[in-house]
Structure formats: C-alpha cells, structure tokens
Design goal:
The chain is an all-alpha fold and 58 residues long. It contains 3 helices and no strands. 62% of the residues lie in helices and 0% in strands.
Length: 58
C-alpha cells in the first residue's frame, strides 16, 4: 500500500507554485497523499525523494 502511494505521488505532475485555483485535482491528490504519509509516519526523507522524482507539468 505504501509503495503504491509513493508511486502514485511520483507520477503526479509538480504544480507547486502555480495559482491556488489552478489544477485542483492534482493538488487535491497531492495533499491527500501527503496527509497519508504523515498519518502512517513515513520517513520524511522517503517523501522528499519521491517529490524530487516528480516532473513539472508540461
């Protein structure tokens, strides 16, 4: 389950820094996954590494 969540997180386009009202679906998924990682106590380093693997929205 955690591995799947990390892969899903990595597959999301990186949209941080865009206006708040843009890309609500992506930002909602990102927020839900980050909350899940916090709830299960995932090592912050693992989340940071997954975040770095994300590609900017094209």
């Amino acid at each position: 389950m955690v591995r799947y969540a990390l892969e899903l997180y990595k597959s999301l386009p990186f949209v941080t820094g865009t206006p708040e009202d843009q890309y609500p679906e992506i930002k909602g998924q990102e927020n839900a996954l980050e909350n899940f990682f916090l709830m299960i106590g995932l090592d912050p380093k693992a989340r940071r590494e997954a975040r770095k693997a994300r590609k900017p929205l094209q």
